[in-house]
């Protein structure tokens, strides 16, 4: 079992398989980064899998593939199959912008993928294009339908932004409700790579919008999930991911691995240790040692907290497209 320095059990590994993306979301990668990690520095799926086996053997029970846009790595299904064959009962999920799902969903499902979280920030083509930097809505909606059709469990992620898509919170909730999909509203997390003009919505403001159309009941956090769950009057559930809240990190159960092999203990901070050398040498013990050290170094909490907000706190320098959010 993997336990961090604060006694939290870590059983969830998020792997960013690429930092590249076909969208330019304002809150993540409004412009192409000055430089990408050179292709030769990326770990192959065989190399990533060596670490995945270490992590599973040490107690990881849930793996999420993310990015950048993970579906830009064409043979992602082969990686999914490697993991699924090694541990068939692993909770194996993907986070994607959905653009490439119409043609890949079936292959992913056949390879062993169980769940997919799809980002959907607007149901209006113009607003979706304003956020993503290109005309994407039609394909994203088709991607959602395809994922449902092939039998993947689907969740929707929406990042509400003031003056951009904050008028669509109820519409997205309705879109999900009629399809029996859970939506999670994510508070915008300030970071240096995002468009600095953006203003996110606080969890309380998001809930106030939902209350304009519904009565809601708080259910609480679901185990170590970052999502605080709520129930609508008709039994529909939705979630709120609220990293600015003081108790958000209490049950944090995750670590992150980037495409070039950096193991990251917390989304907010710059700290990371590389497993690339150990993996390239095939030195499993050394990789396990790096994992143990990263767990030891995992910070108590992020710095997007309520007490700090409003003060001149530093914004996170971590790029979401590198860590996978
Ligand atoms: N490209 C995929 C996608 O967009 O779903 C996967 C990677 S993306 C970094 C993972 C999640 O992070 C998405 O749901 C996205 O909306 C969210 N995200 C990115 N930047 C964010 C930010 N600054 N604040 C809150 N959520 C963010
Ligand atoms: Fe790409 Fe996802 Fe970042 Fe948007 S949020 S730029 S789709 S990685």
Write structural notes for this entry.
The chain has a twelve-stranded mixed beta sheet with strand order 7-8-9-6-5-4-3-2-1-10-11-12. The chain has helices spanning 45-58, 76-86, 101-111, 125-132, 137-149, 169-179, 203-211, 276-280, 284-297, 320-323, and strands at residues 12-16, 62-66, 91-96, 115-119, 153-158, 182-186, 216-221, 227-232, 237-241, 254-257, 262-264, 273-274. The protein has one domain (12-214, 250-323): Aldolase class I (TIM Barrel), CATH 3.20.20. The chain is of the alpha/beta class. It is globular, with a radius of gyration of 19 Å. The two termini are 24 Å apart. Iron/sulfur cluster is lined by residues 21, 23-25, 28-29, 67-69, 97, 119, 320-321. S-adenosylmethionine is lined by residues 21, 27-28, 66-67, 69, 95-97, 119, 157, 159, 186, 188-189, 191, 194, 320-321, 324-325.
